[in-house]
Amino acid sequence: MENTILLGHGSGGRLTHELIKELFVTHFDNPLLHEQGDSAILPGCNEAMAYTTDSYVVDPIFFPGGNIGKLAICGTVNDLAVSGAQPLYLSAGFIIEEGFPFDDLKKIVITMAGEAQKAGVRIVTGDTKVVNKGQCDKIFINTAGLGFLPEKFRDITSGKRVCAGDRIIINGTIADHGMAVMAVRNFASFTTDIISDCAPLNSLIKSVLDAGIDVKFMRDATRGGLATVLCELAESHNMSVHIYEEAVPINENVRGMCELLGFDPFYVANEGKVVMVVADNDAERALAVIKQNEFGKQAAIIGEINELHNGKAVLNTVVGGSRIIDMLAGEQLPRIC
Amino acid sequence: MENTILLGHGSGGRLTHELIKELFVTHFDNPLLHEQGDSAILPGCNEAMAYTTDSYVVDPIFFPGGNIGKLAICGTVNDLAVSGAQPLYLSAGFIIEEGFPFDDLKKIVITMAGEAQKAGVRIVTGDTKVVNKGQCDKIFINTAGLGFLPEKFRDITSGKRVCAGDRIIINGTIADHGMAVMAVRNFASFTTDIISDCAPLNSLIKSVLDAGIDVKFMRDATRGGLATVLCELAESHNMSVHIYEEAVPINENVRGMCELLGFDPFYVANEGKVVMVVADNDAERALAVIKQNEFGKQAAIIGEINELHNGKAVLNTVVGGSRIIDMLAGEQLPRIC
Fold first, then answer.
1. Is-cis flag, bond preceding B60, omega within 30?
2. What's the start-to-end Cα distance of chain A, in Å?
3. By the CB < 8 Å criterion, does A126 face chain B?
4. Which helix (H) or strand (E) holds B281?
5. Is the pTM of this model over 0.80?
6. For chain A, which domains are there?
7. pLDDT digits (tens, 9 = 90+) for B239-292
8. CA of B335: which chain A residue's CA is closest?
9. Which has fewest Cβ within 10 Å: A38, B5, B78, B311?
């Protein structure tokens, strides 16, 4: 193979075929990918399906705790998992800048293959486009994903059964991903100990659902951070969401970096955090199940739904006050995912 | 709404929500899109499914006969249709450059909505990322697509039943899309009469399959042109593909532009052309059915499979010679789709 990606790798001709065969099919290896038709052929199933897509444009493409390929797998797996679905199949679309180092592409592809295996999903179809130098920044990856959704979990996404008294759980510390990326961008010359939380959450979520816990709402807190999920929850059914600030787990080094750079950790992106709403009497058991998972050791009950029905998310601060959590108005952190 | 796309439109916060609600959901309107969870929820079906993805990076984004949004719908619909599947659901992932005119985005989205409706598919899930000015060129769109695939059409993609004596059909003129885009790039100051063939082919393909014609192989000739499809066909089962050059339809103005710019039309991209292989005794009937469709009026039988089994595609030229059709080695036309 060449040392860098050439425009010809996106031509649809000989170089594209070589790239697909020697890199993508080699590493994403599975029977469904082998046919190499225009579409992958998947088995049918009478259950409903969850279907999602995300493009990943993170900068830098390598960061502590992961790279753009890990994000592209975990992000889409998590979007399916929080819908109550079992993630099964992914597509992968690459847009690559001419001259991109082949070794970096290989690292990204190998990471994707490893994460897909860990998450139990198969990459079954893909596409590669190469654009001239300067027409995109290094590499962008789109993954779409498909999973089967058991009937009993169909209303998790809507959150329509959430009611006053329900408790809100998060599976660990917030703002790690955003601050890990920001630290590299701002302080590239020395290393910090902040590591992205990027992780596939489907096994954690499955363990909660398998335990028979009635999850009434579930969403991963990515772009826009925990605050955005809480606002969406409050607005969607005109509920009142109360959060206890002191209960929200934050790593001390992340808190310090947020203060240094002037960010509110509630608005900073996560890539391995899920917010769940369960009935009060399920909350402790759900917490115990989550804590058994490698990605849930620092899980906490961080708030509750109360009876005001005002469509607002409110933070009870550690100093005894309260403030409304609003949705992010502008853009704090472009290209965070 | 703002006049241009801001980084905040990709933040996941308030501006993203507004963009989704006021532009995407408004125009892509359908019940499955309304839930706005992390995944769309699709009904199950016991049939096999075809699943595909493509990213679209065409430059310029508006060209005679279409725009990047039309391509993003038709390209993915066609990838599903040539697999024998009935295209049903699309995802749409947008990567937009900061400062992109909102009116252009709206034009693109409205085009996508219209093409989706014509093709009978629904856009059920999406994603928007905004990158800083200069970090991508205007707009890139990824669509992934899902369709149900009846058991009886499952082996069309592989082409394994193709045998000597079978005939090769194309539904019309070649090289229109590539030359329409090239004409705009090279001669932007005056207009040519070359128009992209970009079109959804699922109704044409359905009419052939519904007529009971045994299609043994089918592929759309996009990047890499007709030549690439013929090479793939020849190589896949070590078959010998013979093409009669004088039978291949080419518009005169396209032929002229190819000569002017030094392109071989066999390698120039199409966006509304399908190559089908059928038994000799089905060929005339297939041709008649195709010609009844609005996108098949200039269809022609352009070649045959013969008994050499050498894995080569050979062109019998109009001057009486023959030459081997090889796969595109480099890149003729970056960002053609």
1. yes
2. 29
3. yes
4. helix B280-291
5. yes
6. 1-34 (no CATH), 36-153 (3.30.1330.10), 167-325 (3.90.650.10)
7. 999 999 999 999 999 999 999 889 999 999 999 999 999 999 999 999 999 999
8. A131
9. B311
